[in-house]
Amino acid sequence: MEGCRMMLKKCSIGRLREGMILGRDVYKDDMTILLGEGTVLTSKMLDSLADHDIFSVYIQAEDEEEAISAANPPLLGEDEERGEIPAEAAEEMPAKVVPKKERLQDDSYVRQYDEVFALLKKFYADTRTASRIDAEAARSLTRKFLPLCESAKAIVQIYNMETEEDYRLHHSMHIAILAGLMGQFLKLRASERERLIMAAFLLDIGTTRIALEFLEIQGYYSDAERRLMQKHVRLGQELLARSAFGTDEQIVGAVLQHHERNDGSGYPAGLKKEQICGFARILAIVDIFDAMASNRAYKRKRSPFDVFKILADDILKGRLDTEYGVSFIRHIGQALNGCWVRLSDGGVGKIVYIDESRLDALPVVQTMEGDFLDLNTNGNIKIVSLLTSEEVQGA
């Protein structure tokens, strides 16, 4: 209706009616969209929301009539009016709050990332056609990574990177950046931190001795394919043995042992904690984190906090190193404090508190409406993605 302001209202499932229009996307547990913004709700859709344990959603309304369809169904009760937000009255809360993916990163950081990514891609391509690793190129590349891991806030940047194309190279980029952060958390000497970064982007160098056609397989590996892929650690060790880094036990050990686990359940040798080098135990953690927190063509990424829970479980079971794992979760978790997030009910909020005493703690989030949500007790609401305050305000 001309002259009417469109409103967003948070509506509990019990108050939804056919004909209502969704004001924001609604997500399933795997963070795929169940119903999109602008969808006109049907009886079948209401059942689907209930089946997926969705307890509340945002709907559109015309504030003159409190209605959004020809059926003119009732909207929220007076006790829920605090959730009413004029879409045109607040710049930070338009009908679609979340900016598009390409706006989720800092432009300067993205430019630096792209420059280093191009160098890493060339390094891997050159290694594929050469008989040995170019040591000077590796050292130069290591120095290029340093500006990308100056602040733990880099986690927000790399989390929102598009990684489906050239996933393996993006993964090598990310674990090198995370390794640089770990070097800071652990207060390593500058030279040791640089060696850790180098070991990180060399972790998968053995894949340059595996056919590209195999590496381009999309989806989960068969048992035979998995056994072939697991050979990359020994192939990487052999490459390093012929390079200037062949005598560096930590770098060679990291490449060979980063899939080993403290309880002996890893590969290739089933080593236990005291047999696994320090770099490998550090990089095992960041390797797992990024693999789960990155999109692939066949698998969507998880929230960092979902991955923290998995890491914490592996630490408690003795699979991952306690000192390094606790340091990683606590520092990265605190780096996310103050970040803006998109929630699975379509809402946007700011992380205001994370309990450091619990490794698997979820954050407390303050919504745009001013409400506080403790995600530890509101299990039906999850974090979908990370944003920044500037991006939300500029959306």
Summarize the model shown:
By secondary structure, the chain is of the alpha+beta class. It is 40% helix and 11% strand.
Describe the structure.
This is HD domain protein. Residues 146-345 form the HD-GYP domain. The structure is a single chain. This protein has helices spanning 43-51, 107-129, 135-145, 154-159, 167-185, 190-202, 212-215, 223-229, 232-241, 249-257, 278-292, 304-316, 322-335, 389-393, and strands at 6-12, 21-22, 26-27, 33-35, 56-62, 85-86, 340-343, 348-353, 364-367, 372-374, 383-387. With 395 residues, the chain is of the alpha+beta class. The chain has 3 domains: 6-101, Molybdopterin biosynthesis moea protein, domain 2, CATH 3.90.105; 102-335, Hypothetical protein af1432 (Orthogonal Bundle), CATH 1.10.3210.10; 340-393. It has a 5-stranded antiparallel sheet with strand order 10-9-8-7-11. Strands 2-5-1-6 form a 4-stranded antiparallel sheet, with no helix packed on it. Strand 7 (340-343) and strand 8 (348-353) form a beta hairpin. Helix 11 runs antiparallel to helix 12 (304-316). It starts with 5 loop residues before the first strand and ends with a helix.
